[in-house]
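Appendix B. Raw example, untouched.
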Amino acid sequence: MIPPIGFLAAYQYFKKGYVDIGAAVIMAIAFFVGGYAGSKLALAMEPRLLRRFFGLFLLVIAIRMLI
């Protein structure tokens, strides 16, 4: 459900002139490359280490939200 709804919402913003196509293309490429590289890294890591890194990441985000 998210892709068709997201596309329709983005199209409405585009029609109103609120979309910077250049920035959108750069972000799409960055998401694609980052997702691919992140999945390769996650699959190469030991599951226990991955859980610890993820826990540390969540802890850092939680502290930043409290500050």
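End of appendix B.
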